[in-house]
Amino acid sequence: MSSSALLIIMSLTTLLLVGSQILLKIAIRASGGSILFSEGIITGIWRLAGQPLFWLAGGLLAASAIFWFFTLSKADFSKAYPLVSLSYVYGLIGSALLLREPVGLWQIVGVVLIVAGAFLVMLR
Question: Could you tell me the residue range of the domain that residue 81 belongs to?
Answer without folding.
Answer: 3-122
